[in-house]
């Protein structure tokens, strides 16, 4: 490829890349304004999640699980018992701005969803930067960045999570930031910058959602090993980098857990949350949680748990009310199988790189921990085959997909570029069709809030 053609390709690719970010943002904003508050037209658990920013907005700057404004109408449940408060405070920030300029209660509530939009776009940006580093030796790296942004940004369940108040998207964004920091540290050496990014990723996961904690563990292990190996001859620099990452993460995360110990004598809040629920049952309340009692083998092999989880990993909106048309869901399964095959077909040539091996082993281990926590919860707390609880696996999957495509195809001539563009158009079209179909079927007409927030 000539220099002029290469420059033109980079310019066109960067333009498409920006347009993909803009299009994704428009989709998230449109959906945030379109979703309602019910089981059919809203986001699962949003009304309960929204109690935290509403409490903060109304003067409870550090809400307790015992504050009436933070307690849900069922189960004595309150997410304020947990230290994962990051999304709640970001939502409260946007709600405060909306209230300050005199918007209606409905629009103030919708503005709380902007936090999820921000987290979704951060996840896209971190993924984009990760792929840029992976393909830094390819002149057409921008093509693979566009593929990554398109695949993640218009994955239906990811787009839905980026449109209503929830903690899952905050943690997923943290996973994307963690993976970016690790790829940067492994391929370009650890610096103060990527140590700060690593700490921010740990913070987003740590104050986001439990099921992403496997990725925190993976990131810490890989960071400690590689920062040591990279600085054997300069221990002072290694200690400085370690202190930067560990110190910043500790300052941002530990106070929330310390507050839990002081307030509830409960480091992670789960025991207090469960105690309140048991009190609800003793007072004659309805049983709201139903663990799967027939064992893990039956759960995985003889129930609908795996099928329903996979389906909701692709697209299941509302409180498990709307699923994407089955034919489209199957097409996502086929896409996943194809790109996995492409990756596996070339894994041996990359396996010689110790950095690649570390990332693969780390991401597989983190994914297994996430799956283990998800299954444990279904067996011992509540049967909930919802893909959003394992959505963090989407980040390593997308990177694997793009690496598989990049190793299999050069994508450096007009035909391959047109085919790539056609694929992205069809892929985005499928996502938009699913959202349009859901909006019509579920009667998405926005928030109609009555009274004060």
Short account of what is shown:
This protein is mostly helical and 453 residues long. The protein has 20 helices and 2 strands.
Protein described:
The chain is mainly alpha-helical. It has one domain. 69% of the residues lie in helices and 1% in strands. The chain is built from 20 helices and two strands. It has helices at 3-34, 46-49, 51-57, 86-100, 105-112, 114-134, 141-153, 156-161, 168-188, 192-206, 213-230, 235-264, 270-282, 296-301, 305-314, 326-345, 347-351, 354-380, 394-408, 414-441, and strands spanning 316-317, 322-323. It has a two-stranded antiparallel sheet with strand order 1-2. A hairpin with a 4-residue loop joins strand 1 (316-317) and strand 2. Helix 6 runs parallel beside helix 9, helix 9 runs parallel beside helix 11 and helix 10 runs antiparallel to helix 11. It starts with a helix and ends in a 12-residue tail after the last helix.
Q: Give the biggest sheet.
A: 2 strands, antiparallel
Termini gap: 59 Å
Largest sheet: spatial strand order: 1-2
Q: Can you count the helices? A: 20
Q: Kindly provide the radius of gyration, computed on alpha-carbon positions and rounded to a whole number of angstroms.
A: 22 Å
Report the count of strand segments.
2
Low-confidence stretches: none
Strand content: under 5%
Count of domains: 1
What is the N-to-C succession of helices and strands?
Answer: HHHHHHHHHHHHHHHEEHHHHH
Helix content: 55-70%
Structural class, by secondary structure, is mainly alpha
Shape: globular
What number is the mean pLDDT?
95
């Amino acid at each position: 490829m000539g220099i002029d053609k290469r420059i033109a390709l980079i310019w066109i690719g960067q333009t498409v890349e920006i347009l993909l970010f803009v299009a994704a943002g428009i989709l998230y904003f449109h959906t945030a304004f379109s979703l309602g508050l019910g089981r059919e037209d809203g986001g699962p658990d949003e009304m309960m999640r929204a109690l935290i920013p509403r409490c903060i907005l109304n003067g409870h700057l550090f809400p307790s699980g015992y504050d009436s404004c933070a307690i849900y109408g069922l189960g004595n449940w309150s997410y304020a018992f947990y230290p994962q408060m990051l999304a709640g405070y970001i939502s409260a920030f946007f709600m405060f701005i909306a209230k300050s300029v005199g918007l209606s209660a409905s629009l103030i509530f919708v503005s709380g969803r902007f936090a999820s939009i921000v987290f979704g776009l951060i996840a896209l940006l971190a993924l984009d930067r990760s792929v840029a580093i992976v393909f830094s030796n390819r002149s057409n790296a921008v093509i693979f960045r566009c593929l990554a942004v398109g695949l993640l940004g218009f994955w239906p369940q990811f787009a839905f999570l980026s449109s209503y108040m929830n903690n899952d998207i905050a943690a997923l964004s943290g996973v994307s930031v963690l993976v970016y920091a690790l790829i940067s540290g492994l391929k370009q050496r650890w610096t103060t910058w990527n140590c700060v990014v690593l700490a921010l990723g740990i913070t987003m996961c740590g104050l986001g959602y439990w099921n992403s904690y496997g990725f925190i563990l993976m990131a810490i292990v890989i960071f400690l090993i590689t920062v040591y190996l990279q600085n054997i001859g300069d221990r002072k620099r290694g200690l400085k980098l370690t202190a930067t990452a560990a110190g910043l993460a500790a300052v941002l995360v530990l106070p929330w857990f310390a507050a839990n110990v002081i307030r509830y004598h409960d480091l992670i809040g789960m025991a207090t949350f469960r105690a309140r629920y048991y009190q609800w049952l003793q007072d004659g309340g309805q049983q709201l949680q139903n663990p799967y009692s027939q064992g893990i083998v039956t759960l995985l092999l003889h129930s609908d748990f795996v099928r329903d989880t996979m389906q909701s990993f692709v697209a299941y909106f509302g409180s498990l009310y709307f699923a994407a048309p089955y034919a489209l869901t199957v097409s996502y399964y086929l896409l996943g199988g194809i790109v996995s095959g492409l990756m596996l077909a070339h894994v041996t040539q990359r396996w010689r790189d110790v950095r690649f091996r570390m990332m693969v082993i780390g991401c597989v281990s983190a994914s297994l921990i996430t799956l283990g926590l998800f299954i444990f919860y279904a067996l011992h707390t509540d049967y909930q085959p919802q893909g959003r609880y394992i959505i963090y696996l989407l980040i390593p999957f997308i990177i694997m997909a793009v690496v598989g495509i990049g190793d299999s195809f050069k994508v450096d001539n007009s035909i391959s570029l047109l085919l790539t563009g056609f694929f992205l158009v069809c892929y985005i079209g499928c996502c938009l069709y699913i959202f349009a179909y859901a909006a019509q079927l579920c009667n998405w007409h926005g928030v109609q809030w009555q009274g004060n927030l």
